[in-house]
């Protein structure tokens, strides 16, 4: 019984991990690649090559291929099917009739499965007829090529390249076609809710304009969720969905491992932690906060499938993993926050703990962009924790007394919005300037200390001796400035 359950769970995981589901979802959303083959057929051919070592271009429930007027018969396994014509045959086994790009090569050198040179298979939704003369045999296939689909209404589709190139290799990716621009921009927004630009604006906004108490606890949760997620990726080491059939709408994180999705983890942890931290402390309807958190979470999770970065299994694993961390970590928040604020030796322990966690993460696998992201997250958490300790010691930015709770949101007016926007613009500019200055200092310094050439910054940062101190020092400074230096600047300018 137990063995059967484990087998069924394994089969379910394999099913959810299949990239063909990602490709189909992208097609439903109006995303199509500029591949030479239909994504579903390419995936079937690839799976047949890897697992069965046989030709698999004849597939689908509603396929129809006529050879010399005789209709081919289905077998129990479509992947083991072969088609013959007088004087020619397609072999089932071996690689002599299989090209590198997954197409079938006939003895005459023609390819089946590509536009203009072969036969494509019919499905119930396909239209059009193409005749192919091959050594006197007539092969009639019902088909519709990707190019033919595109040519139906060229004005309805837009050719787009990935927004950002691969952070490790510099690969800009392959062009793809967008049919539904609304979904493209919506899911681009969703995926940006888990990127650096969002973090460097969202967390400061909460600190400077809403509630420093909530923000420092929220950042502590975010650090642990992201650190455990990135480290787990490097332990499991599962590759991202294959392309083709998946269209890579995003390339920036394509060199990292896939399981679990840290975007799904942060997209779950941040909104639901906000709900847990603010409900009862601030006055608002619970259903409003819960609905907002759910919409946020769903948008981020689905956007990662749309972008071609994660399978369904990656998203489910990230969502559940994040919930598990919240269940374990949430009760300890009071203890951790009080320790950071009041314990005499907290700064030393904070620096040592976060630095040690960064060193550990660098030993899990070979260098990738996730190494730097992990060090960046840990550095930000250390900087915010240090600033919290210093604020408490100096008596600045105190938490409101308990008898003032729950807090009422202020009435929105032009003056309040203007001051909030002024704080954001000025504060973010200061943070960007600090980051640029620290980056210009730390990378050459780390290269000089470690003896690594600094001419090629991208290659130099692939060494732990450079990337870890660079990310840790720069972003701990940014985190410290966010919670201490910038609020002091606001007080000096009478903007607090």
From TrEMBL:
Residue ranges annotated for the Phosphatidic acid phosphatase type 2/haloperoxidase domain, each copy included: 216-330
Where exactly are the transmembrane stretches of this chain?
Answer: 286-306, 313-333, 345-364, 376-394, 414-434, 472-493
Task: Write out the biased-composition intervals (Polar residues).
Answer: 83-104
What is the first-listed, main subcellular location in coarse terms? endoplasmic reticulum
A UniProt-annotated Pfam family: PAP2
User: What's a GO cellular component annotated to this UniProt protein?
Assistant: endoplasmic reticulum membrane
Classify the protein's membrane topology as the record does.
Multi-pass membrane protein
Write out the similarity annotation: Belongs to the type 2 lipid phosphate phosphatase family.
Name of the protein in its database record: Sphingosine-1-phosphate phosphatase 1
Lineage, uppermost ranks? Eukaryota, Metazoa, Chordata, Craniata, Vertebrata
Encoding gene per record? sgpp1
């Amino acid at each position: 019984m137990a063995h059967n359950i484990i087998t069924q769970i394994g089969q379910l995981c394999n099913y959810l991990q299949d990239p063909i589901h990602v490709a189909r979802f992208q097609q439903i959303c109006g995303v199509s690649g500029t591949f030479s083959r239909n994504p579903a057929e390419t995936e079937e051919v690839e799976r047949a090559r890897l697992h069965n070592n046989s030709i698999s271009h004849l597939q689908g429930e509603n396929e129809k291929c006529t050879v010399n007027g005789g209709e081919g018969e289905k077998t129990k396994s479509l992947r083991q099917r072969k088609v013959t014509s007088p004087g020619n045959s397609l072999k089932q086994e071996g690689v002599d009739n299989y090209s590198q790009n997954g197409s079938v090569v006939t003895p005459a050198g023609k390819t089946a499965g590509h536009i203009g040179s072969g036969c494509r298979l019919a499905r119930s939704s396909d239209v059009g007829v193409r005749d192919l003369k091959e050594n006197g045999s007539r092969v009639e296939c019902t088909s519709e090529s990707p190019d033919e689909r595109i040519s139906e209404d060229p004005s309805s589709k837009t050719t787009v390249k990935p927004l950002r190139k691969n952070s490790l290799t510099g690969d800009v990716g392959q062009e793809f076609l967008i049919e539904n621009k609304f979904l493209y921009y919506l899911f681009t927004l969703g995926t940006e809710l888990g990127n650096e630009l969002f973090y460097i604006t969202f967390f400061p906004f909460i600190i400077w304009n809403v509630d420093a108490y909530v923000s420092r606890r929220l950042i502590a949760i975010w650090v642990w969720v992201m650190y455990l997620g990135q480290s787990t990726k490097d332990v499991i080491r599962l590759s991202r969905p294959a392309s083709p059939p998946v269209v890579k709408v995003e390339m920036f994180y394509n060199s990292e491992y896939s399981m679990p999705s840290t975007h799904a983890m942060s997209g779950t942890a941040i909104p639901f932690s906000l709900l847990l931290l603010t409900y009862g402390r601030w006055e608002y309807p619970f259903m409003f906060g819960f609905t907002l958190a759910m919409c946020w979470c769903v948008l981020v999770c689905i956007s990662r499938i749309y972008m071609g970065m994660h399978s369904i299994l990656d998203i489910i694993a990230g969502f559940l993993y994040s919930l598990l961390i919240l269940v374990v970590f949430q009760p300890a928040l009071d203890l951790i926050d009080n320790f950071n604020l009041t314990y005499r030796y907290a700064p030393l322990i904070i620096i040592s703990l976060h630095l040690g966690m960064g060193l550990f993460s660098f030993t899990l696998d070979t260098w990738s962009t996730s190494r730097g992201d992990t060090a960046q997250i840990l550095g930000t958490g250390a900087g915010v924790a240090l600033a919290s300790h210093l604020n408490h010691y100096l008596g600045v930015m105190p938490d409101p007394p308990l008898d003032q709770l729950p807090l009422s949101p202020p009435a929105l007016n032009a003056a309040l919005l203007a001051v909030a926007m002024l704080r954001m613009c000025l504060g973010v500019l200061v943070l960007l300037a600090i980051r640029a200055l620290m980056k210009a200092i730390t990378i050459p310094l780390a290269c000089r200390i470690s003896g690594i050439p600094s001419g090629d910054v991208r290659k130099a940062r692939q060494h732990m001796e450079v990337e870890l101190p660079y990310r840790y020092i720069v972003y701990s400074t940014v985190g410290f400035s966010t919670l201490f230096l910038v609020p002091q600047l606001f007080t000096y300018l009478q903007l607090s």
